[in-house]
Amino acid sequence: MSEHFDLVVIGAGSGEAVVDDALSHWRVAVVERADFGGTCLNRGCIPSKMFVHPADVAVLADDGPRLGVRSTAEGVDWTAVRDRVIGRVDAASRDGEETYAEKPHVTVLKGTARFTGERRLVVTLADGDVEVTADRVVLATGSHPVVPDIPGLADAGYLTSDDVMRTERLPARVGVLGGGYVGSEFAHVLASYGARVTQVDSAPMLLTNQDAEISERFTAAVRERWDVRLETSLERVSGTAPHTMHLSDGSSVEVDAILVAVGRKPSSDGLDLEHAGVEVSEDGRVVVDEHLRTTAEGVWALGDLSSDVPLKHVANADARVVHHNLLHPDDLRSADHDHVPNAVFAHPQVASVGLTEEQAREQGLDLAVGRREYAEVAFGWALQHDPDDDAAEAAGLVKLLADRRTGLLVGAHLIGEQAAILVQPLVQAMALGTPVRGLARAQYWIHPALTEVVENALIDLEQDLEAGPDNA
Ligand SMILES: Cc1cc2nc3c(=O)[nH]c(=O)nc-3n(C[C@H](O)[C@H](O)[C@H](O)COP(=O)(O)OP(=O)(O)OC[C@H]3O[C@@H](n4cnc5c(N)ncnc54)[C@H](O)[C@@H]3O)c2cc1C
Ligand SMILES: NC(=O)c1ccc[n+]([C@@H]2O[C@H](COP(=O)([O-])OP(=O)(O)OC[C@H]3O[C@@H](n4cnc5c(N)ncnc54)[C@H](O)[C@@H]3O)[C@@H](O)[C@H]2O)c1
């Protein structure tokens, strides 16, 4: 016999946010096979940034002597940080689960869901299977790390972002495979905590999704701190802790652990979506329309499972759209994935929104470019030892792109201290369609805060817009 619900939500990461008291007139089931809070809370954004902050503190302590401060980081206590971080996120996850379990209209099913028909599911719980049917289903099963099939890797053993933050001790030597978000943030963490890091990426630069100038600066800055091997792949691994990584450039590196960080894949496998009539694209993403409806009647999807931008702020926004649309079927909202900012919380920090210069030129836009080095504004001086100091803290840059035809910002790219915060007024200008002309002068910018670097980049951009057509 199957149990019927008005709504079943599969995945209690961002899916959790769909279920609130506005739905109290419905019987709702939340199916979660692991921890409430999903990737972001348990093994993603939140714990990783709690590891990054001590890493930043250690870097700053080591940087003290450059500015006349007698300081050095004498090491970071991995176990203490790990216990603090994991203690906090595990408690938040348990609280989240309890909060839902206490809601009279919500049934929590701790198990793995798969479809057997249209809005018909089997959930495998610890003590057996239950059949569930529903009027509506929300798919929010997120994504998981990709592990490439490299000879010897599985036998040697490896870490991914799922387990690196829970590992017992800091490995002395770590091979980091991948130079994207996870690889670069964790190379920063591991190196700052005292590990010897070798980062390997098949691309010619780290953070290749960023504007090329920013990727180049980032790569150059972190090369001062750890070994970066670009245009290189891991051909095979031999040995079990220590392992030997055999690289495509003919070299080999001995390490105590390997962190695999070569991307994530939507978790659509195993849901048996073909039984539900839910279409999946070649890359594993569930296909949705602008209202986040899948191809099956009454089935919605959100977050990393279906998103073209797999970031938490996007998954949260998707959840708000689905929540509204479930309650207002005659007044559907659209998911807006335009002007989504991103940040890489490494050292230096990187943040951006919109098109890179390469993408904008490829689209044939007539571009105006505004730039300002951190070192050119007063707070940048504070980060510098002397005017020629190009240490990572000082070598920050704000680069802005506008379309001459519309006079609107089309991209903003920042590297350096507080980049993830400094980008926000630029996101706002893009989201609200505020013209570049007048933007810098229409408001006060606190002197001598680092925001002046954004103000000055905007002035530079405005001057370039005034100067006329681009001849680049
Ligand atoms: C190390 C790391 C750091 C990150 N840092 C940031 C950051 O700083 N900023 C940012 O914006 N984004 C960051 N992200 C990305 C962010 O974590 C994701 O975009 C976000 O968590 C996606 O949310 P979601 O709800 O779509 O999926 P998830 O949070 O992954 O939730 C999916 C849930 O579904 C459950 N599930 C899956 N399949 C089933 C099934 N068949 N039955 C039952 N339950 C199932 C899973 O157990 C999981 O709990 C980071 C990711 C990682 C890995
Ligand atoms: N700060 C943040 O917002 C944040 C932090 C962490 C993760 N995330 C999310 O998690 C996702 C996954 O992050 P990620 O770092 O795993 O992926 P990514 O897509 O950001 O980077 C993957 C990197 O691995 C490289 N690569 C791929 N295959 C390789 C191979 N076989 N050998 C060597 N290099 C290889 C690629 O060139 C690329 O540089 C991100 O796209 C993002 O959505 C976000």
From TrEMBL:
| InterPro entries the record matches | FAD/NAD-bd_sf (IPR036188), FAD/NAD-binding_dom (IPR023753), FAD/NAD-linked_Rdtase_dimer_sf (IPR016156), Pyr_nuc-diS_OxRdtase (IPR001100), Pyr_nucl-diS_OxRdtase_dimer (IPR004099), Pyr_OxRdtase_I_AS (IPR012999)
Domain of life the protein comes from: Bacteria
Co-factor requirement: FAD
User: Which Pfam families does the annotation name?
Assistant: Pyr_redox_2, Pyr_redox_dim
Residues noted as binding FAD in the record, renumbered to the chain: K49, T141, G142, S143, D304
Give all cystine bridges in this chain: C40-C45
Keyword DNA repair assigned to the entry: answer is no
| Gene Ontology molecular function | nucleotide binding; oxidoreductase activity, acting on a sulfur group of donors, NAD(P) as acceptor
Keywords for this entry?
Disulfide bond, FAD, Flavoprotein, NAD, NADP, Nucleotide-binding, Oxidoreductase, Redox-active center
Q: Which residues form the Pyridine nucleotide-disulphide oxidoreductase dimerisation domain?
A: 340-457
What is annotated as the active site? H447 (proton acceptor)
Q: Domain FAD/NAD(P)-binding, which positions?
A: 5-316
Which residues hold NAD(+)? Answer: G178, G179, G180, Y181, V182, G183, S184, E185, G263
Q: How is the cofactor bound?
A: Binds 1 FAD per subunit.
For this chain, the family text in UniProt reads: Belongs to the class-I pyridine nucleotide-disulfide oxidoreductase family.
- Official protein name in the record: Mycothione reductase
